[in-house]
Amino acid sequence: MAHSARFSDSPALVVPAQNVKAVKTFLEEHRLLDKRRKIAPYTAESTRAGSSARDQTLDSGKLFIVPFLPVTTSINETDAAIVETYFGDLTPALTSRLPPDALTNISITNLPKTPVPETASPPTTGQPHGNPLRAAFHSALVSSLPAETLSTLSLTPAQLAADLPGTYSIYPPLLLLPAHTFHRPSWTALLAAHDPPSSTTPLLRTVLAHVAQRLAVTHVALNAPIALHNDATATTAAAADQPSNQAAAAAAAPAAPAAAAAATTANILRAPHSLTPLHGDFGPPPCHPPTASPSPADFTAALWATARQNGITQTWAPLHTMFSRGNVKEKARILSLGAVRDAVRQGEGGAGAGAGGEDIAGAGAGTATGCAAVDLYAGIGYFAFSYRKAGVRTVLGWEINAWSVEGLRRGAGANGWGVEVVVVGGGEGGGDGDGDGDGDDWEGLGEDAVVRDFVVFRESNVRAARRVERLRGRLPPVRHVNAGLLPTSRGAWETAVRVLDPGLGGWVHLHENFGEGEVGRKAGEVVEEVRRIWGVVRAERCGGGIGDGLEGDDVVKLEHVERVKTYAPGVLHCVLDIWISPTGNQARS
Q1: Nearest residue to 508 (alpha-carbon basis) of 520, 523, 522
Q2: How many CA atoms lie within 13 A of 335 on its CB side?
Q3: What CATH number does the domain containing 556 carry?
Q4: Which of 106, 115, 161, 550 could pair with 134 as two cysteines, CB 3.0-4.6 Å apart?
Q5: 21: domain CATH number?
Q6: Could you tell me which residue, 203 or 472, shows the higher pLDDT?
């Protein structure tokens, strides 16, 4: 008997032949492999015209189509190249199975519309299996809602559970849901019908309370991308016992674009303004202006989430600070980076390490043993913690977000590390570090601060070079500098060169966004600018002309370009490891 049919698009990964097995295994492990379609060779005719955003940029060689189950309602063709868009927090699990940089050669496409027998559709009755989130929602819908609540809308618990995304994150005690979690028609219909403005006990609140209990969390929120700008009209549903009716409405429909006339400023704090609390008390709402200083009581009242990566615990306040799980690869690389190990080893032995790992005669400017690192954009300790765990004795950090500094302090404590926080301006409500002058009131820094694991300045890094110069006699030699700001860290390149130990030199690790086809050229341009900066600093410290000493090819040397992840279609997040020769009178022997 012939079956009725419906038409459906199917997403698929376009994968080089050598990576097909790893990708297939990843999809199977996470129940995302679309077994209704076969893995097949990629041809121009095998995909819908124009749906692959990167057909021309994939490396040469045989390619295969690996179908997977959609986790969004449709594929946005402008985002078709962003693997992270579809797999979210599962992306590190995928990259861990692939060789370095392999993810940059994998794209997403849409397979053509084909008739799909109705018998192949997922069942709409019974309990879903395999996905804890869907199982928790199924249980909540069955146990906490009267049957007529769903039957009047011709909905079932299984259908609603199946329409949830397959990906989510748990950062104890927080369950973080993708922004599109409740965008399917079944969910929008349910929430629109049963959470009217007059409702005093929103349906979603009841369901989420059950889900939270099943998944052993106390808080639930909808995630959203970090906005590049602060929207003056933005509001945050941060009251206790979420969701409010407004939060439920936000969950039920895609966010509307901000009014064109809204005043905006750059979101320099990378604050998660669009995160929507749904269940639990998240503490005080974000400060206005964003640079205002929270009080100790605010810190105490806030929700703090945790994550553990590479054996390191990190802590942050989700309503106030972003967390980038996708940087786990770069964090792990720092832990095993040869240049870091060499600097640690040579510091413990009383000498320095050069670009090739060779010993450098003489000690650094400081009298302490070991080595130091500087993180010019410390955040909650994303990369700073990796340097400390790798053996760096002291890490100096600069960060303007008070919530991030508090997260770093708490996270360091969870790892057994000591922290000295320097608030320029002194005490509660101190300045944000953007004014002029040296800010001499920071001289209260205790004599034992530089023997702590971390010294963090809550201020802009524009004065970092002056701070380090005044601390050199109390610090181990600074051998590594991290500048982790995207889309470019250019504003910190000169500071990075200046804070390195003048007598030993060291490495700067510059984070940049490059187009896929211009990585080599752009990296070369960065190195040339850093060479120019080196010449200026060298001339200041040693006398002579600005160009003196630049003849050697190894004065400033690009050792490696790490392609961390896809940042946007055709754009890569890269880290440049650059060796910087000594800028002082003490040179390598």
Answers
A1: 523
A2: 14
A3: 3.40.50.150
A4: 161
A5: 3.30.70
A6: 472
Three-state secondary-structure class, residue 577: strand
Residue 259 lies in a domain: no
Q: Which residues contact 516 (CB under 8 A, 6 or more apart)?
A: 57, 104, 570, 571, 572
Q: How many domains does the chain have?
A: 2
Which structure tokens are listed for 268? 């320099």
Domain of 55 in residue numbering reads as: 5-120
Q: How many CB atoms lie within 10 A of CB 35?
A: 9
Report the alpha-carbon distance of residue 240 to residue 100 in Å, rounded.
44
* Structural contact between residues 275 and 220, judged by C-beta atoms closer than 8 angstroms: no
- Which residue bears the tokens 């009725």? 4
DSSP for 95-121, written as a single string: HTTS-TTGGGG-EEEEEEEEEEEGGGS
Both tokens of 564, joined, read 């961390």
Candidates 467, 337, 335, 457; CA nearest to 408 is 457
Radius of gyration of the chain (CA): 26
Classify residue 298: in a domain, yes or no: no
Q: Which tens digit of pLDDT belongs to each residue from 458-509?
A: 999 999 999 999 999 889 999 999 999 999 999 999 999 999 999 999 999 9
Query: Any idea which residue has 């959203």 for tokens?
Result: 224
Is 520 among the domain residues?
yes
Confidence (pTM): 0.70
Residue 10 lies in a domain: yes
Residue that is last in its domain, among 120, 150, 183? 120
Q: Please write the tens of the pLDDT for every residue from 96-120.
A: 788 876 777 787 777 765 543 433 3
CA distances from 137 to 164, 181, 303, 401 (A): 9, 12, 23, 36
